[in-house]
Amino acid sequence: MAKEVVVHQPAPALTGGRRIVAHLVVATLAVSVAVVAAWVSRAVWRPGAVSIPWGLALSVAGSASCVWLARSTVWSLGLTAAGGWIVGLAAMLAGGPGGDALIIADSLGYAFIFGGTGAVVVTAGWRSWDR
């Protein structure tokens, strides 16, 4: 009995209008991921005297995963996702007209800003020198 040989075809390249639409969709999704991640980053479990910032870990991991997922399709989409995430973060840092702030200037807030940004940038540029 002969074995069946499966030949995998490479995915079609994003060209022209599809490439532009894909970048716009990824950037929009990355902005929304940044907003949701900032909201989740405030969640802390306090079993007694210990505080476990599970929301911070989840938000940084989710943000990096968003960029990694975009980057796994086309390398430039990872850079677009990182840029969209940073734009979303900058929009939240600007605050609202009444002085409202989504990211508070405390240890959790700073950990989210620097940890999330670092994770997103490193994920977008990871192993880019091989290309």
Protein described:
- This protein is mostly helical and 131 residues long.
- It has one domain (23-130).
- Helices cover 63% and strands 0% of the residues.
- It is built from 4 helices and no strands.
- The protein has helices spanning 17-40, 54-73, 75-94, 107-125.
- Helix 1 (17-40) packs across helix 3 (75-94) and helix 2 (54-73) runs parallel beside helix 4.
- The radius of gyration is 19 Å and the shape is flat.
| Model regions low in confidence, pLDDT < 50 over at least 5 residues | none
Let me know the number of strands: 0
- Provide the gyration radius in Å: 19 Å
Largest sheet: none
- Measure the end-to-end span: 42 Å
Number of helices: 4
Shape: flat
Q: How do the helices and strands follow one another from N- to C-terminus?
A: HHHH
Relative strand content: under 5%
SSE-based structural type? mainly alpha
- Helix amount, in percent? 55-70%
Roughly what is the average pLDDT, rounded to an integer?
85
Q: How many domains would you count in the coordinates?
A: 1
